[in-house]
Specification:
This protein is of the alpha+beta class. It has helices at about 10-25, 55-65, 65-75; strands at about 1-5, 30-35, 50-55, 80-85. Helix 1 (about 10-25) runs antiparallel to helix 3 (about 65-75). The protein is globular, with a radius of gyration of 15 Å.
Amino acid sequence: MVNVDVLDEEAGLAYASVAQRSVLSHGGCYLAAGPTPEPVEGTWDSSRVVVIEFPDMDHIREWYDSPDYRRARRIREGKVRVGKLFVEGAPPEGFALPA
């Protein structure tokens, strides 16, 4: 999951172009992307949200450390605020709360 706030639209477009190509070239796919909708509960502190799926954590690590994504990070530096949360999938039966 990625939270995004674009401070400079030109840099944001340049970052998005490079980042999208890098995600797709490392096996990622976009599940949702766009302006952050009104939260049903609580607050959401970013103007845009993106949900990306990768086959596994190894692909995520490979993508995040890749030269093409490092380039994207340099493009956005100081111009696009990004917060990322990498999550391993849940089992098919859901999750259980600790006892």
